[in-house]
Specification:
The chain has one helix at residues 5-8; strands at residues 14-17, 21-25, 29-31, 35-38, 45-49, 57-59, 78-79, 82-91, 99-104, 106-107, 110-119, 130-136, 147-148, 151-153, 156-157, 162-168, 170-171. By secondary structure, the protein is mostly beta strands. The chain is globular. The termini are far apart.
Length: 174
């Protein structure tokens, strides 16, 4: 199990391959350090967030703590989290001002060939929804900031209010 608590404390790289299909997500999925989620391609592997108050994914540190709980740094920091080859979207039935992906106090995250969108909207216009939030609360300068070296490549942002937001201490920006 890629999310079992026993894995949080290791430096083992874990990869979860998500087959093509449509998957409903009803709450936040925590992404521990050194995990990669790989779909079979944007438009083929589709994850739809079906609520109005949470992110689809958020990074957590080695101890499983998320941003609001005060994440760790140094050896326990969030790092090397990757999302590849999938579509992530809000359900058009809900208004959600949370990001689909929250990269919190994380080092070297990679997002590649991911489509960010809102599904099932009748108007083709949306007034809410954020694709990616990169935020940091640890560090004060280039040598101490934890949220850094974010790589976003070959991604598409469609039918969202905002594609990417940076907040707080983020270094070597997107």
């Amino acid at each position: 199990d890629i999310y079992a608590n026993s894995y949080y404390g290791t430096d083992t790289i874990r990869t979860l391959i998500i087959p093509s299909g449509k998957y409903d997500v009803s709450g936040t999925v925590d992404l521990p350090p050194m995990v990669t989620l790989v779909g079979e391609g944007a438009g083929l592997t589709t994850l739809v967030l079906n609520n109005s108050g949470t992110s689809m994914f958020r990074t957590v540190d080695k101890l499983g703590a998320h941003f609001e709980q005060g994440m760790q740094f140094d050896g326990n920091a969030s790092k090397f989290v990757s999302l590849k080859d999938m579509s992530l979207g809000f359900s058009g039935a809900y208004t959600n001002n949370q990001p689909l992906v929250s990269l919190d106090n994380t080092e070297n995250p990679r997002i590649q060939n991911v489509e960010f969108t809102t599904f099932n909207t009748n108007t083709g216009f949306v007034s809410s929804g954020v694709g990616i939030l990169a935020r940091g609360s640890i560090g004060v300068d280039e040598s101490t900031v934890i949220c850094r070296d974010i790589s976003i490549s070959d991604c598409k942002f469609n039918l969202l209010d905002t594609a990417i937001i940076e907040d707080g201490e983020v270094s070597k920006t997107i």
